[in-house]
Amino acid sequence: MWYEGSVVAQLREASSVIMLRRTKQPGFEVFLLRRRKGASFMASAYVFPGGGAEPGEDARTAAARELFEEAGVLLARMLEAGEGETLEMPSVPAIRKLILDGADPVATLAKHGLVWSTDVLQPWSHWITPSHEPRRFSARFFVCELPPGQKPRFDDIETVDQVWVTPAEAIARAKDLALPPPQVRTCWELAEHATIEDVLAAGKRRADEPHPILPRVCAAATNAGPCLLLPWDPDYTERGSGDAAPLNYRPAWARGPSRFVLEDLTWKHVDAPGSTSAG
Q1: For residue 137, is pLDDT > 90?
Q2: 55: Cβ–Cβ under 8 A, 6 or more apart, which residues?
């Protein structure tokens, strides 16, 4: 569960990758991995590949490393190659195994004549786990297209299954996918775009309007369970509890449903009473 208790925990830097692929029909799908049942954070939930950053690791490098470790998709180039080129080579699974077994990622890539290629990662959003959670992350979300010739594969360590779904399908399947709020909100945003090109263009616009999304807990109006308020919710400042990051300006992306309500073990993305998704 994304909301689990009342213990204040320290923030850890993290990164996630919203990976997209083209479909035969117009449109695109998004990639989700299922975390193992015994995971200490978001257990059994389908999430974007990602995790905590290592010491000295910037957000983009952390995103590329986590994508490779958890999904086997390598964003890398040969040391003498131009920026943005990705690599297709038979030894990729072997390199992944070395890193999963504990080898230093940068040194391992360098040994094979490679270096991370992170320029294909387009910033999308910045989520901070509510302060009531026992484990908290300051997570940067990046979007990218699946590189040609590569097929993702869950690591069977931290992740145990995977799925490609359209954003609309993900929202419709929010219960059986056990989607946490960041995944639900992101799929809602992705569903507004018709093509991967549209998504990447939107990402560039969003990068010019940075602001963290730190949900605050609010008592639900019904017996449904906890309610999470997003920074543009009208009740965010007055009724929310826990750490806050109120908007000091209104980014264009800060619109639509402004809260999450937990109903039937499912996070539902809804409007504040009296408002509409056009907001």
Answers
A1: yes
A2: none
CA 75 vs. chain centroid, Å, equals 17
CB 272 within 8 A of CB 259: yes
For position 232, what pLDDT does the model report?
A: 97
CB 233 within 8 A of CB 273: no
Beta-bridge mates of residue 15: 51, 140
Burial of 21 (0-12, 13-18, 19+ CB in 10 A): middle
Query: Higher confidence at residue 52 or residue 158?
Result: 52
Is pLDDT of 261 > 50? Answer: yes
Evaluate if residue 83 carries a pLDDT over 70.
no
Q: What is the pTM of this model?
A: 0.90
Residue type, 168: A
User: What is the distance between the alpha carbons of residues 67 and 19, in angstroms, rounded to a whole number?
Assistant: 9
Which pLDDT score is estimated for 81?
47
Tokens of 219: 């008592």
CA dist., res. 31 & res. 163, Å (int):
6
pLDDT at 150 over 90: yes
Quick check: helix, strand or coil at residue 106? helix
Contacts of 215 (CB under 8 A, 6+ apart): 130, 181, 228, 229, 230, 260
Burial status of residue 29 (CB atoms within 10 A of its CB: 0-12, 13-18, 19 or more): buried
Do residues 200 and 32 make contact, with C-beta atoms less than 8 angstroms apart? no
Q: What is the DSSP letter of 25?
A: S
